């Protein structure tokens, strides 16, 4: 055989083996957050409604000695009903979890002691003392801490002289924003108010009298889209986690058995570069060895594909294969791609089983998939 022709075929089959490895291998790593552009400060913040009007974001909240400022607007402690912001402080004698002596407890439990309004002296419990009077500055300071939670997505409704109302996004907050965005009026008020505890008059007034602005609609649309997308992603991750937990044990046992067979096959059949001539016996043996290598490659490819789809959807690992990572969000497309590459590569290598270079390529592909699956088995065994 001409040396240049032999070298060309060697390079061509080497490229084919490399393509097979890229198509089959699901290079993964522990999940890392995707590179996303950071949201602006107003994008992460929640919503503040003041006297039935939307207060535009971003929100700047400051506290002085007796004044709370929200976006430059000043509010005194008597601007809202802050009666629920009572001051509770731990009983200092209960530190380190030690129970006070009986004489000390009896000396404190006097009928005329106005400083001790509620004390629990049960062993092992945490004791609190309620101060008889809470200053307006203390109530304003605690209210300021609640207002600051808007930075993390909370929804705050303020009406002059009324109690402040706070909503978590996932516990009625997004339903409120959705109703305000849709401007459903009374129908929305009846639906939302039944889900919210307390302050029904405030909810009804906000839902029926609120007039959405263009700025509110833009923020609400972006927030609702992000919230809905997060819900869909959470459902997908939950379903994938449940599915992978069901098949993890049998799939790991099957993969372990195939890995053992793969290593045994690789150690028993070393590839040969030399041509065997026209001996039919050697041709039959080569076909058998190449067929076994490609069968192991096919089995391990199926295991790898199942693990890749399951762990990627559940967020446990991240696809490092640049070709596969672009299609990981489309399981059908990824399946067709890997099945096509694997099937075509296996067919070509089996068709050329008489060529020594085909035997070498199939052996190396089998080694690559066996090592990759051995790594999968090691990681999966740690979390069974």
UniProtKB/TrEMBL annotation:
The keyword Signal applies. It comes from Stieleria neptunia. Residues 296-369 form the DUF5658 domain. It comes from the Bacteria. InterPro entries: DUF5658 (IPR043717). The chain crosses the membrane at residues 247-268, 289-312, 332-350, 357-378. Pfam families: DUF5658. This is DUF5658 domain-containing protein. Keywords: Membrane, Signal, Transmembrane, Transmembrane helix. The lineage of its organism: Bacteria, Pseudomonadati, Planctomycetota, Planctomycetia, Pirellulales. Residues 1-31 form the signal peptide. The keyword Heme does not apply.
């Amino acid at each position: 055989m001409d040396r240049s022709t032999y070298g060309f075929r060697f390079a061509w089959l080497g490229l084919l083996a490399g393509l097979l490895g890229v198509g089959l291998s699901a290079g993964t790593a522990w999940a890392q957050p995707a590179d996303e552009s950071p949201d602006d400060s107003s994008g992460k913040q929640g919503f503040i409604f003041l006297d039935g009007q939307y207060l535009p974001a971003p929100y700047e909240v400051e506290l002085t000695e007796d004044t709370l400022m929200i976006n430059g607007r000043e509010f005194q402690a008597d601007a809202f009903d802050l009666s629920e912001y009572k001051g509770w402080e731990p009983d200092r004698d209960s530190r380190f979890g030690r129970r006070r002596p009986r004489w000390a407890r009896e000396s404190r439990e006097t009928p005329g002691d106005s400083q001790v309004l509620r004390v629990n002296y049960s062993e092992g419990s945490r004791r609190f003392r309620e101060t008889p009077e809470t200053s307006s500055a203390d109530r304003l300071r605690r209210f300021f801490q609640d207002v600051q939670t808007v930075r993390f997505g909370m929804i705050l409704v303020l009406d002059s002289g009324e109690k402040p109302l706070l909503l978590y996004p996932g516990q009625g907050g997004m339903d409120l924003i959705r109703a305000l965005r849709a401007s459903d009026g009374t129908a929305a008020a009846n639906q939302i108010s039944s889900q919210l505890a307390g302050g029904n008059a405030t909810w009804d007034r906000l839902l029926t009298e609120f007039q959405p602005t263009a700025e509110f609609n833009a923020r609400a649309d972006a927030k609702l889209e992000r919230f809905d997308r997060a819900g869909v992603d959470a459902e997908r991750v939950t379903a994938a986690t449940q599915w992978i937990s069901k098949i993890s044990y049998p799939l790991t046992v099957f993969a372990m058995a195939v890995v053992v067979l793969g290593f045994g096959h690789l150690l028993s059949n070393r590839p040969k570069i030399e041509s065997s001539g026209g001996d039919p016996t050697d041709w039959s043996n080569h076909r058998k060895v190449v067929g076994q290598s490609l069968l192991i490659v096919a089995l391990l490819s199926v295991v790898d594909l199942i693990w890749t789809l399951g762990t990627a959807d559940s967020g446990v690992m991240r696809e490092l294969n640049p070709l596969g990572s672009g299609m990981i969000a489309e399981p059908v497309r990824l399946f067709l791609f890997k099945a096509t590459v694997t099937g075509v590569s296996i067919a070509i290598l089996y068709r050329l089983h008489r060529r020594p270079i085909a035997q070498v390529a199939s052996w190396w592909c089998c080694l690559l998939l066996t090592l990759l699956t051995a790594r999968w088995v090691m990681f999966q065994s740690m979390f069974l």
